[in-house]
Amino acid sequence: MSPYRIASAVLLSGCGPAVGMVEDATGTAATTGMPTSTSGASTSTDAAADTYDSHWFIMDPDGCHHCGHECDVWAQDCERGYRCMPWANDGGDRWNATLCTEIDPTPAAVGEPCHAVESAFSGADDCMFGSVCWGVDPVTLEGTCVAICEGSEADRRCGEGLECFIGFEGVITLCLPSCDPFDPLCGEGEVCSGDANGFVSDEPFVCLPTPPFTPRSYGEPCGGLEICAAGLACVRAPNVPGCEDHCCTMLGDLAQGPICPDPAQTCIPVDDTMPESGLCYCGVPA
Predict the structure, then answer these.
(1) H or E segment to which residue 114 belongs
(2) What pLDDT, on the 0 to 100 scale, is given for residue 183?
(3) Of 116, 148, 177, which one is at a domain's C-terminal end?
(4) What is the DSSP string of 40-91?
(5) Is the previous residue joined to 212 through a cis bond, with omega within 30 degrees of 0?
(6) Dist. CA 58–CA 203, nearest whole Å
(7) Do residue 206 and residue 147 come from a single domain?
(8) Do 203 and 153 lie in a common domain?
(9) CB 130 within 8 A of CB 83
(10) Which of 36-50, 139-153, 188-202, 212-226 comes out lowest in average pLDDT?
(11) Residue 229 domain-assigned?
(12) pLDDT band at 149 (very low <50, low <70, confident <90, very high)
């Protein structure tokens, strides 16, 4: 595997030579969008090349993992041969930023085994453009290439049977298998969760890998990589008696009126626009 280097989308002094903006035949700076495919991932590194030509970049010749500004995972606005990836810029165990990392010369395709570099949160792996090494084992650093969502946050696109999972302040945007929280047919080592940003929302339920995500039981603390087990949701402290911050509580179906564990709780709609049907969680009314 070749060493990974970082490309920045702005001009920074001391971070290497600038590469100029490409112009078309009319003398106007060319602009192109991210290549798309019906499978939910770009099909080759070559197909992605035109994405990069419409921007100014600095490339750090020393491979500095902390040089430059963040990139856009939707626009994929990195230097040719690089891709915009989620990572943990503090060396921690959760994604909180983005950066440009070099595409492996012999990348793995979506659905194929892959390897992360240093950790699951480094932003560097050997997957193809338009995908991320996901469900990485913390010991072996092995995972599977998963497609990044196409389109935009307002118009998310994934392949059939997949939902666009957005989390961690929007730096994670992946096409993951959809699931039913009350009949979660996820694979081994996965859990059905709707906690897109660590907390209950009206986002689609998807199968999340464990690790790095850790399922929690009713009443246990949750948030970030600590998600609630199937049939539970992460809510603020007042909704779960005895909870100090955010804790897991029961999910239910408003049409069936689930029985909540604590007499102070009632089933509160997850989506306020659907007060008579849909999901609810056991909480304490404000």
Answers:
(1) strand 113-115
(2) 84
(3) 177
(4) SS---HHHHHHHHTTS-EEE-TT--TT-S----TTTT-PPTTEEEEEE-TTS
(5) yes
(6) 37
(7) no
(8) no
(9) yes
(10) 36-50
(11) yes
(12) very high
Say if residues 171 and 55 touch (Cβ distance below 8 Å).
no
* Average pLDDT across the chain, whole number: 78
Which residue type sits at 263? P
What residue numbers bound the domain in which 151 lies? Answer: 1-177
Would residue 55 count as lying in a domain?
Answer: yes
For the chain, the first-to-last Cα distance in angstroms comes to 54
Is 183 part of a structural domain of the chain? no
Listed residues 112, 143, 177: the one ending a domain: 177
Mean pLDDT of 43-50: 40
Whole-angstrom distance, CA of residue 200 vs CA of residue 250: 11
Q: How many domains does the chain have?
A: 2
pLDDT at 83 over 80: yes
CA–CA gap between residue 79 and residue 102 (Å, rounded)? 9
Asked if 128 and 91 sit in the same domain, the reply is yes
Within-domain flag for 94: yes
The confidence score (pLDDT) of residue 6 equals 35
pLDDT, one tens digit per residue, over 169-213 is: 899 999 999 998 888 889 999 999 987 655 666 678 899 999 999
This prediction's pTM: 0.73
pLDDT attached to residue 196: 63
Query: 167 phi and psi, to 5 degrees?
Result: -155, 175
Same domain, 211 and 157: no
